[in-house]
Structure formats: C-alpha cells, structure tokens
Amino acid sequence: MLLLAKFSHVNWFQIQAIIMSHVFYLIYVGLAEPHNTKADRALDLANECLLIVSSYSLLVFSPWVPDPYARHTIGWVLIAIVMITFVINFCFLLWPICHRIRRARYLAKVSRRSFISVLL
C-alpha cells in the first residue's frame, strides 16, 4: 500500500498495476477454476487476455510517447480490441438462445405442435 501511495502520481506505475492485477486474476482463473463449465472458463480467460492486451496499449497514452499519430493509431487498435471483446461476449450470449430456438423448431416439427408452445 505504501508503494501505491508513493507512486500514485506516476502514470506508468498505475498502468503496470492494472496489468499486474489482470495477470494475477488470470492466474487465479487458470488455477482455481471458479466457473462451472469450460465455456465460462474460456470466455473469462479470453476476456482477461484481451484486457491485458488493451492495458498494454494504455502505455502509449502515457508521456513516454509524445507522437500524436502513434496515439491516434493505437487508439483505433484499442477500439478494435474492445469491439472484438464485445463480439465474442455477444456470441456467447446468443448461442444458447439460437440453440433453444432451433431445438424448439425441431420439436414442433416432430410433434406437430405450434412453435411457440414448444418454445415456452
């Protein structure tokens, strides 16, 4: 704690602290396996890996890199990483819904009941 208070004004130390916290959480998820399914673990590991990559890009926005063109370019890369993370999470969210709809359509076709009654 004393170390955090001493270097709180230094930008690079704050960014490194963020990166290290993500690395420690990644190690925890890998070793302790707090999630029930492999898919949840994979999603959490993918999210943490993409967060670590995006945290490393924050170093470009520190005073170390004064070039505005480099900051602009890395800003677009950071936006792309965030969008990739969003798409991955959205696919994990939609997959069970699509699977349930396909199964309900199949059951409605086989049992000759209405699609909505099978879905509910």
Describe it.
The protein has helices spanning 2-6, 11-32, 38-57, 68-111, 115-119. By secondary structure, it is an all-alpha fold. It is elongated, with a radius of gyration of 22 Å. The chain has one domain.
Structural class comes to mainly alpha
Q: What about the largest sheet?
A: none
Distance between the termini: 53 Å
The count of domains is: 1
Summed up, the helix count is 5
Percent of residues in beta strands: under 5%
Low-confidence stretches: none
Q: Summarize the helix and strand pattern as letters.
A: HHHHH
Mean pLDDT: 81
Q: Strand tally, please?
A: 0
- Residues in helix, %: over 70%
Q: Compute the CA-based radius of gyration.
A: 22 Å
Shape call: elongated
Give the key terms.
120 residues, mainly alpha, 80% helix
